[in-house]
Specification:
mainly alpha
Length: 77
């Protein structure tokens, strides 16, 4: 069985994911401060975890990107 890759194994990967999500959130929210607050706030769609807590696995990272895409298109979850 293949387990999800953890970015804890690759510290540079985590930094890259943070930078990528921050840029994507800034695009969605239109403001760096609002984006950073959103990334650090518990999210109901993520079982009350913050988006930044979710980026250590590929699945978690993709979940956060999906939520940002929904927000961008007005589909609130």
């Amino acid at each position: 069985m293949i387990s999800p890759t953890s970015s804890a194994e690759f510290p540079g990967d985590r930094a890259s994911r943070v930078a990528s999500l921050r840029a994507r959130a800034e695009d969605v929210f239109g403001d760096p401060e609002t984006a950073w607050k959103w990334l650090n706030r518990p999210n109901r769609a993520l079982a009350q975890k913050t988006p930044l807590e979710m980026i250590d696995t590929d699945t978690g990272f993709q979940s956060v990107l999906t939520i940002l895409g929904r927000l961008e298109h007005g589909v609130y979850s």
